[in-house]
Amino acid sequence: MPKVFCVRILTIIILLISFFGFSQELPPIVKFNPVTYNAGNQNWMVSQDKNHILYFANNEGLLEYNGTNWTLYKSPNETIIRSVKAIDDMVYTGSYMEFGYWKRNSNGRLVYYSLSKSIKDKLIDDEQFWNILNFDKWVVFQSLNRIYIYDLESKKYKIITPKNNITKSFKTDNAIYFQVFNEGLFEIENGKSKLVSNDALFKNNKIVNVVADAYGLIVHTQSNGFFRLNRNGISKFSTAADSELSFTSIYSSCQLNNGSFAIGTISDGIYIVSKTGNIDYHISQTNGLSNNTILSLFEDADRNLWIGLDNGINCINLQSPIKSFSDESGKLGTVYASVLFNGKLYIGTNQGLFYKLNNSSDTFHLISGTKGQVWSLFVYQNVLFCGHDSGTFIIDNFSAKCIFNQSGTWKFQNISNSNLVLQGNYYGISVLEKKNNQWTFRNKISGFDYSSKYFELSTPNEIYVSHEYKGVFKFKIDNDFSKAVNVVKLKYPSKGKNASLIKYNNTIYYAYKEGVLKLNNKNKTFVKDATLSKIFTDDEFTSGKMIVDKSNKIWFFSKHYIYYFYRNKFNYELKQNAIPIPSKFTNALTGYENITQLNDHSYLIGTTDGYNTININDLSFKNYKVFISTISVNELNKKSNFISINEEVELNHDENNVTINYSVAQFNKYIAAEYQYKLEGLQDNWSHWNNKPSVSFKNLSPGDYKFVVRSKIANTNLDNNAVYKFTILKPWYITNFALFIYLIGFVYLAFWINKRYQDYYHQQRLKLIEENNLLLEIKELENEQQLMKLRNDQLSMDVDAKNKELAVSNMSLIKKDELLTLIKEDLKKTTDEENKNTSIKSVISTITKNINNEDTWNVFKDAFDTVDKDFLKKLKGLHQTLTPNDLRLCAYLRLNLSSKEIAPLLNISVRSVEIKRYRLRKKMNLSHENGLAEYILSI
Fold it and tell me: Of 153, 626, 815, 831, which has the fewest CB atoms closer than 10 Å, so is most exposed?
């Protein structure tokens, strides 16, 4: 029965200790789940190389982490890698029936080289290698059956084969130890095993760690705690943690640089036990870890504790100036305000007002009556005021007294040299007054009923109020603080989401997304403050919340920094300090950020699930180095290829898409490295500082390039710059050889063109001469044609003259016949009168013979046909009905004779000629538009 009672008591103690985690401030924990690092769940061992790059023995292979990127290298035989050890520039790993090393090639990637294949026939079937240790020039590979000692110089092996299984091996400064089940603790000496102790304690209890100090060995067992082993024997090394650790099953143990121990358990997380034996931290899944099963522990060069879990990887920043309190239970809620008052830490949350003794491991206690939303905490005249959704409370030790409940209270502002305090409420501003040493509500200031979350007094009787949805108001108050007058809503500045207003160094400041403004007390207008507004450039604005601490620093919160400014003692200018903690890490509620000064250098920052504490004097970090991890290039729309990072390379002209990855091997959760780069040959100016650990350059032109990247951590620039040079070659068609060929071709082309031009102009000259000759010939022909024309004209004129002559001749014949006819007639008359004189009759007969009209026509016709060949035939052919008289008329018309000239030739009147012409038109079927003479002339 007493034994059962003791177990119950111990169980209650453990539960109380577990509840202590509710109020324990822990170092930051960086969590990496299998999805993040894209590998298996379990991580069996951790190691770090001289460049601070970390390696994990993972279920899926060798896992590498350089502070920015995770890279998985598949196991060489597709088995679980159980052990890993970085030695110099090689990373040794052990797995199922295989061990060897990985070496980085020129492009920054690891390549595996097997060591065990040379002794494959000596390996025991089904053997796995669980640990790797190095000592001087030897590397020790430990399986559960054997120890293989590999000489780095001779490349030979020594094998230790105990009778029973090996549980684990350990390295101290001067020796390597291992435990054999049911045999004891051994040491490796001269390549052989040497028994150190076969005490039943070491034969029957699994050893999880062996470390050496000035007094001998400290042996940590799985179930019975610590023991000291030296020449005097074995003695219990008792610690204050023994009772609690006795209820856990320990799987791994690691001594830290400061002498304390990190102890990993199977199901209860990790314990950090100081070198004096006290529990500094107990961290489990309930207060920060990803998993309670600790498979491996490793302290890196920066004293971060890496934890290989059964499901993921965690990193505890033990040396971080930031400590975190996380309310995993949800009892505390989101922190909106905090204050250190009378040795107690008060935390105002959305769940109420909580307190605990400062610097203690006590739990937080809810002050009765304050359950609900707390907006602000304010200390004045040694009295703690609490602004609450339910009104205003006075906090006295562990109790709360409500002194105002008409509306919620945002903030408080004391009136100098008076017993009055103004409070901003949901519906305006009201006054608290101290009477008889008691604070009471006095009155509400009438005339202003808007929510007064932020307000400040510019003068004792002038108040400025910032309203998030309306803007900034200004009004006067009477001397009795009872009435607001001259209420004015300012046109500038405009309203702004998460804007705030505060008084600092007797100047009112207003912060919103457009920058930080300050009130000009002379003309009562807001003007932009150039110094403070710089913090919100480059899309850095998240909240305009401003806080003034007890040491007269003004604090701001942006996307990537927490800023504070203080006045320079020499010139009173504001000096800026930036803490590179991004808002996503601070986990504060936007618009309700809060920071409280706990002492000269320590501050408390409220978060959505607790709070962080930070010592700004410890924000100094060792000098890390920035390095280029990988460089990949690719052609357009093709797969990327890694290239050498150790030497200058030449890339083809189409491999002009270059991606450069760089990193700083630092693993602090809150302090992120920032980078700045330039690519000489493309840009000579440095880029803006940013957190992105890679940069891509697209479609680079041929030429020589020099990439330079530098980094800073917590505003401290690192000493080194990482430099990489590369050349993008010109396409073959613009290389020097090609240009030389082009030059030869150009000269030949110029010569050829010149020759062609000469030939062309020669041909042109010949052609011109030929054309000129042709023109001369043409001119001669034209002259000949002209001469011919003149001749033809002359012939035409001759023909016309002949026609005239013919017509005249015909007329003469006709007149001669007429004369002869008249003479004949006269002679006839004379004969009749003188009785027929024979001689006269003879004359008459002669005249009659010479008068022959037909002969006259025939003569004319023959002459006409001679002059105008075939006219009459053509005419007869065209008009077959024409009579000889018609043809005769046509011939006269052809001679261009008028009717008057034709009449005597036909021996008829002019009228008769016209009638004949008319009839002739009818026979020829000529229209009225066609003239008879024109028609005949045209034939």
Answer: 153
Residue with tokens 């002559």: 805
Q: Strand, helix or coil at 747?
A: helix
Give dist(CA 564, CA 578) in Å, integer: 7
Neighbour count for residue 108 (Cβ, 10 Å):
20
- Asked if 513 contacts 490 with a C-beta cutoff of 8 angstroms, the reply is no
Burial class for 688, CB neighbours closer than 10 Å (0-12, 13-18, 19+): exposed
Distances in whole angstroms, Cα of residue 699 to Cα of each of 688, 735, 849: 22, 18, 124
* H helical segments located in 80-175: none
What is the Cα–Cα distance from 415 to 434, expressed in whole angstroms? 12
Residue 823, class by beta-carbon neighbours within 10 Å (0-12 exposed, 13-18 middle, 19+ buried)? middle
pLDDT at 6 over 50: no
528-532 — which CB contacts under 8 Å span 24+ positions?
531/565, 531/573, 531/574, 531/576, 532/556, 532/565, 532/574
DSSP-based helix, strand, coil % in the chain, nearest 5: 25, 40, 35
Rounded CA separation 245/176 (Å): 27
CA 868/CA 799 separation, integer angstroms: 8
Cβ atoms within 10 Å, residue 245: 23
What CA–CA distance (Å, rounded) separates 276 from 263? 15
**Residue 105 contacts residue 124 (beta carbons within 8 Å):** no
Q: What is the pLDDT averaged over residues 426-445?
A: 95
447: left (phi over 0), alpha (psi -120 to 50) or beta: left
Residue 16 has pLDDT above 50, yes or no: no
Cα 36 to its chain centre, rounded Å, is 22
The residue with greater pLDDT, 764 or 846, is 764
Instruction: Give the gyration radius of the chain's Cα atoms.
Output: 61
3-state secondary structure 894-919: HCCCCHHHHHHHHCCCHHHHHHHHHH
Tokens of 902: 């034709």
CB 693 within 8 A of CB 662: yes
Helix (H, G, I), strand (E, B) or coil at 436: coil
Residue 54: which region, alpha, beta or left (left: phi > 0; alpha: psi -120 to 50)? beta
Query: For residues 734-758, b (16+ Cβ closer than 10 Å) or e, as one string?
Result: eeeeeeeeeeeeeeeeeeeeeeeee
Q: Which residues contact 937 (CB under 8 A, 6 or more apart)?
A: 893, 894, 896
In the chain, the percentage of residues whose pLDDT exceeds 90 is 57
Tokens standing for residue 171: 């390295």
CA-CA distances (angstroms) from residue 711 to 11, 487, 674? 51, 52, 5
Q: Are the C-beta atoms of residues 348 and 384 closer than 8 Å to each other?
A: no
Residues 6+ apart with CB under 8 A from 530: none
Q: What b/e readout covers 867-876, taking b as 16+ CB neighbours within 10 angstroms?
A: bbeebbeebb
Q: Model confidence at 56, in pLDDT bands (50, 70, 90)?
A: very high
Phi, psi (rounded to 5 degrees) for 824: -60, -45
pTM of the predicted protein model:
0.74
Give the tokens for residue 378. Answer: 């304010």
Q: How confident is the model at residue 518 (pLDDT cuts 50, 70, 90)?
A: very high
Q: What is the largest CA-CA distance in the chain?
A: 217
What does the pLDDT look like over 894-904, one tens digit per residue? 877 888 888 87
Q: Label residue 611 exposed, middle or buried (CB < 10 Å: 0-12, 13-18, 19+).
A: buried
Average pLDDT of the residues in 496-520: 94
Whether 75 contacts 64, CB under 8 Å: no
What burial letters (b/e) apply to 19-32, b meaning 16+ CB within 10 Å?
Answer: eebbbbbbbbbebb
